[in-house]
Amino acid sequence: MKIFNFQSYAYDHGVDLASENGKHYRPGWIQIACPFCTGNPGFHLGFNIAKGYFNCWRCGWKSVADVVQKLSNCSIYELEQIVKSYQVRSGLNVTDKNSKQKAKAPSCKLPMGTNPMSPRHKKYLAGRGFDPDELSEVWGLLGTGPVGPYCHRVVAPVLLDGKLVSYQCRDITGKSAIPYKACSIDQEVVHHKEILYGEDMVYNDSVVVVEGITDAWKLGPGAVSTFGIGFTTPQVLRIKRYQHRFILYDNDPKREGQMAAKKLANILMGFDGTTEIISLKNVKDPGELDKMDAKQLMDDLFDY
Fold this sequence. Notes:
CATH topology of the largest domain: Dna Topoisomerase Vi A Subunit, Chain: A, domain 2
Number of strands: 14
Shape: globular
Mean pLDDT: 86
Distance between the termini: 57 Å
Low-confidence stretches: 91-103
Order of helices and strands: EHEEEEHHEHHEEEEEHEHEHEH
Largest sheet: 4 strands, antiparallel
Number of helices: 9
Radius of gyration: 19 Å
CATH architecture of the largest domain: 3-Layer(aba) Sandwich
Structural class: alpha+beta
Helix content: 25-40%
């Protein structure tokens, strides 16, 4: 029997989860704010890890399809693809996120068909304002071919202390229901939401924290990504080690990025060092910056 791996979905899509010490936390359940109970704040919607169903303590049982469609705001076709991509065999890789017995892969292998980027990958990146050869050299980007579950994607290796521990992939066709696709949890040496993308290339005591990996690509070394706005406690502890911290999340229409930035800043201000929220004008996110503007921004922040 297959059930929905909500833990993996939540991490990949930046869904805030109740902490282990929170009042809504229950062993064996993953708790989130119920998107159906507007006006009633709290992590009332629970996902039963063992049985694979949702139940809200206020408004009752919910189907996986209803919850995912509500959270993803997607079409029926996209919903089918998302649910299918996160289905696993019952009992496999569906564990309490706070369990101390989560299995770790001894090593991480890149997706099937990973090779140096083809002209098609480079054309996609160039179309988004990147220098593909520079990204290949600095960030080690690769690409996949037409086969396998990660087909037609740019592959971004995730390194920790020089070791490959995970990866992120970006669709280049514009047709995938899941533009960004992470390494499956059971294949990661370290879960990507426990670390920061690009941390190996931070070379002083200052760091710029961004949402996505493409934002880090545009700003260059010194920028780290939290893989979405749903940052985790391990990520906060890694960020707080830097003396000067700049948070540069997206200026999205719903202001979700800026709200997350304020939440992260409030936590980091409790540690030694400085924390500052940076806002961009005329562009939604750092990935949209012109190359020269991105360089000037980093120079200004780091006072080169």
